Amino acid sequence: MNLNKTVLWVAVYSIVGVAILSQITLPSFFAFLAGTIGATVLFFLNTRVAKAPSAEQSQSKTTTLYVGNLPYKANESNVKTLFAQYGDVFAVRLMKDKRTGKRRGFGFVVMPASDAPRALENLNEHNYMDRTLKVRVANDPKSPESIESD
């Protein structure tokens, strides 16, 4: 995406340069030099801006929470409403039995990493629909730590 933006800026710069330089009589060497310097400056400005982390990127870090001992009658909307009291909820997945299609009593909630500790602290051992919830940070099955501990 950033490369496309850089190419776009270079194209715009080239078109504007052609429009201006076609009106002025300059030796071709100076026109080439001005174009090269301008394109290089634009390239470095765009790559430097692209490397700076934006506010969106810094807030995009998420934590997945495991939620166990859920009531079987609870649905995604119920769980999302419960966890939304403690921050944004990006996704809720409640696990179902493949054969019967019935809920299995556990699931996962994806939240911003900054909101997850508060939700975990407040909802672990919380009584919800006559069940005591078990909330933990979910294991990442692809992480080396979980593979080594097995």
TrEMBL record:
Keywords: Membrane, RNA-binding, Transmembrane, Transmembrane helix
Stretches assigned to coiled coil: none
InterPro entries assigned: Nucleotide-bd_a/b_plait_sf (IPR012677), RBD_domain_sf (IPR035979), RNA_proc/Spliceosome_comp (IPR051847), RRM_dom (IPR000504)
Listed GO MF terms: RNA binding
Domain (RRM): residue spans on this chain: 63-140
Keyword Transmembrane helix: yes
Gene3D superfamilies: 3.30.70.330
Transmembrane feature ranges: 7-24, 30-49
Domain of life: Bacteria
Keyword Ribonucleoprotein: no
Pfam family for this entry, one: RRM_1
GO terms of biological process kind: mRNA splicing, via spliceosome
Protein name: RNA recognition motif. (A.k.a. RRM, RBD, or RNP domain)
Native species: Vibrio aerogenes CECT 7868
Lineage: Bacteria, Pseudomonadati, Pseudomonadota, Gammaproteobacteria, Vibrionales
